User: Fold this.
Amino acid sequence: MPLLFAQIGEEVQIVNIAGSSEIKHHLEEIGFNEGELTTVIQKIATGVIVKAKNGRIALDRTMASKIRIRPLVKSN
Assistant:
């Protein structure tokens, strides 16, 4: 599922990144790599704000839709 559809506060794992090699390279440079964890902090009209590495990054809807994620299963 695209990162764009993650719920606020939900920690997710990046599965892959779709798009051209330039888009993949750009997203990897700012901390979006396969296997990394990220959390949606806020949804805004133009996209999402996410926690990545040690910072917050705003992604527009187009970029957020290229990042494929899976929710983490919470253990009890």
In short: The first helix runs from residue 21 to 29. The beta strands are 11-17, 37-44, 47-52, 55-60, 67-71.
